[in-house]
Predict the 3D structure of the following.
Amino acid sequence: MTTQSIGPEGDTTVTTVQLTGSSAPAAPAPVPQAVERRRRLGGVTRAEAGTLLAALAGSLALDWLLYERLLPFSGAQGFLGLWYLLFLGFSYALGIVQWPRLMVRERIVTLVAWSSGLLLAFLIVEQLVFLTMRGLHAAEHGNFFTQTMARTSAVSPITSGGALHAVIGSLEQIGLATLFAVPLGIAAAVFMSEVGGRTARPVRTLVEAMTALPSIVAGLFVLGVVILGFGFEASGFAASIALTVMMMPIVTRAAEVVIRLVPGTLREASYALGGSQWRTVLNVVLPTARPGLATAVILGMARGIGETSPVLLTAGVTSGMNSNPFAGHQMSLPLYIWTYVRQPYPSMIARGFAAGLTLMAMVLVLFVVARLIGGRRPGDLSARQRRRLARQAAAR
Amino acid sequence: MTSAPPFAPPPSATPPELDRPRTITAPATRGDLVFRGVLRLAGYSVFAIMGMIAFFLLVRGTDAFRATGWSFLTTQAWHPSAHVFGIAAVLPDGILIALVALVFAVPVSLAAALFISEYAPVRLRRALVTMVDLMAAVPSIIYGLWGFFFLQQRILGVVRWMALHLGGILPFLKVRTGDIGTSYTSSTFIAGLVVALMITPIITSLSREVFSQAPQGEREGAYALGSTRWGMVRTVVLPFGRGGVIGAVMLGFGRAMGETIAVALIISPSFKFTGHILEAGANSISALIALQFSESDGLALSALMAAGLVLFAVTLVVNVLAGIVVNRSRSGAATAD
């Protein structure tokens, strides 16, 4: 993280602490309080807040006038969009009568930056809220997680049928895909960072291109090779191979970043003790990078579990339970959503949304776990590890 | 620096060949050789996978290429049973969706990236980065659900207004199919909006990364010359991050081209490229594959494979170029001019 030279108030307090922290406490000079007041560098002045509120209110009023009375507009999105533009205009106009042009431009840019950040936050919250509202209709009935769709038709009530088979299928497919993708991905990452050589760069470029491989192409590939080529039927296994193709580059990229953060001194220490390269990698580099590697794996899983199009081409659709990924069609959550929300029955759409909520919950859990494990640089200790070390030191 | 170095080595008694550094050769043990071989194999597997994808799509698509010849690239129709099919409509329509997505995603992403790296309070930054990462982790079918069941009805008013009032000035905004609700839905524009939401986190996080790498010395120099924060951003951060931003936008474009499920949920497929982005009816190669796959076999499946090969080639070129641009900007070459 960069530290700003002209930052918020935090910087100045740090300096004062360091100054007063010196050993000899100097006698406080009789400073007249009224003269030596610290200037506020950051924060919002009353004039700025007033301008902001006035611009908000004025633009809202004009927006309402234009939208509802004068011009042929309709739709809430348009109302908000026009309000935003008017708000920027009002802020500029109100600013230019008080401050120099340079300052006003600075304020406008700050407003735009803040509003785009808020827009992103709003959008993600809106999606989650929308999904929860629509999904709870079916997901609040316990049967959704204990039944399959085998005995449920379009006219069945919402209290019958569920997505148990899809949850099982999703878990098995993502498990298999993780089993294939993680060793391959981490080995490729170790190759790029530890072995290197002239070929490491093209491998890296290709891995980056593969991260953005259209998921439908991965599905087509597995369809062409595994199903049409080798004659397997569409199954959870075929789907997991398609997911492997999608997950492997994600794991590789994330893992390489973490492995590169392992301090070179640790490697050198291992070599100096006579360790060979494979000993060094297995006993020093990978264990040091373990939390980051776990994060890489989990982020790959979070990506893989939501992939729809590869699964669509390779897993086949079934409404009944099939817990064997190697034989027969197998449902998974994304496929369940895709299948049922496109049917013209409200209860089926509700089930699709409930499956969407379930899928999103799984992604969220994976994401949060990844954040909890990761986020530290390799070699940094967690609070618990530090406490344990302190205990051991005290006991000795 | 043409003058002699100030500390020339004194003419010493030791002969110069003893001063030369010894070359150190560390013989690799057998275990190391095996280990490196295995790793190398894993690294090269990327080439193998990508090569196999291209090869098998080509093999499986050969029937389709043979059936149509060059007209595969010029036909605006999809009737595999009649041997009349081509990508002349779906490829440009997919590009159009991606372009619409870029028009909306790029300004928002750049502003958001600047916000996170420059304007947001330090305490908020980590949370914001996490939020953008989370946005990138949301499955595409969830975006599709949101776009189809939530956004579509709510955006109709704006779309209709644009078609009626801007259509006269900008012909590509015109809607020629009448003024009823369904003539504005399932369009290139709405699909592009949803895809914009999906590529926003990608462009944002990449640009934020390059922005935050802008050198501290130049930043402080700008401030010391009396610059405002925006002045500093405009003269230091943006020029420094230009290469990375271009690469990020290209990566976003590649991702938008390959986006499948959300597009397939929203559009109603059409096989005529009109260029009227607000009209109902749109298509893209990936959506075509997803929607046609279940009723395809034989030549129809081969045709989908051929279309998939085209998509693969286009996205691969875009992504590799983007990767090269991003890497070059990371190594600091963008500051040379």
